[in-house]
Amino acid sequence: HLDLGALKKRGVKISHTPGVLTEATANLAWALILDCARRLKPAEKFLLEGKFKGFFPSLFLGLTLEKATLGVLGMGKIGQAVADRGRAFGMKVVYHSRSPKQIPQADAVSFEELLKVSDVISIHCPLTPETRHLFDQSSLARMKPNAILVNTARGPVIHEEALFEHLKNHPEFFAGLDVFEKEPDVFPGLAQLSNAVCVPHIGSASQWAREQMASICIQEAMRFARGEKLQYEY
Questions:
Q1: Which position among 87, 201, 210, 223 bears the catalytic label?
Q2: Which of 85, 154, 159, 166 is catalytic?
Q3: Distance between CA 173 and CA 94 in Å, rounded?
Q4: Sign of dihedral through CA atoms 204, 210, 214, 219?
Q5: Which pLDDT does position 99 carry in this prediction?
Q6: pLDDT on residue 50
């Protein structure tokens, strides 16, 4: 959200809070994956509407994670933490990243291959001109019809209207979203779909992570006030 070039030109210092939100965000990504994989939102709705009449063998059958492929878009710290959790669930892990990585037990693939082979895609790339609307009507159509798409990175990586139409037309396709294209607004009707799990940008919302983020901000402000070098200058 910042014009880094303009700020640098004017001598404005920029700091950030690296590392402390990695585990919290990875955990939320996996909460969304599990929610979608086991169809928890429509299952809860089914129960609350009084439709549950007892056990039935084919009721809300979900994705078998241990036989599925996890695709990670963006293999920074959060992406790697999500991949680690995927391997713990017995998933095959593939990834696409803008810079070469050496990731144990994970295969680097093209974006096209990521779309084709992944049962679950978790987005962890930055928002750039190249990634804006990367998931549009065309790329969504190249995913598996029963795939899961999770975004805990930046909302505009997904074209929200295209996702809305895709979810309506493919009821077995699920999306888990923590971020949105025009926050705080959500595309009309998206959050109401039974195959869309939407939460209000809470990726880093663990007690420890938020306290550490605040602590780093305060410490950096104090360093700046004392004329010291910032520890986490961007």
A1: 201
A2: 154
A3: 20
A4: negative
A5: 83
A6: 97
201 catalytic per annotation: yes
Among 44, 172, 183, 233, which one carries the catalytic annotation? 183
Q: Give the bridge partners for 108, in sequence order.
A: 95
Tell me whether residue 16 is one of the annotated catalytic residues. Answer: no
CA-to-CA dists, residue 7 to 4, 18, 79, 139, 234, angstroms: 5, 20, 28, 35, 11
- Whether 38 is a known active-site residue: answer no
Q: Are 37 and 66 in contact (CB under 8 A)?
A: no
> pTM for the whole thing?
0.94
10 Å Cβ neighbour count for 148?
Answer: 29
What's the pLDDT at 4? 86
Question: Tokens 């139409």 belong to which residue?
Answer: 165
Do 165 and 188 contact (CB within 8 A), yes or no?
Answer: no
Residues of the chain with pLDDT under 50: none
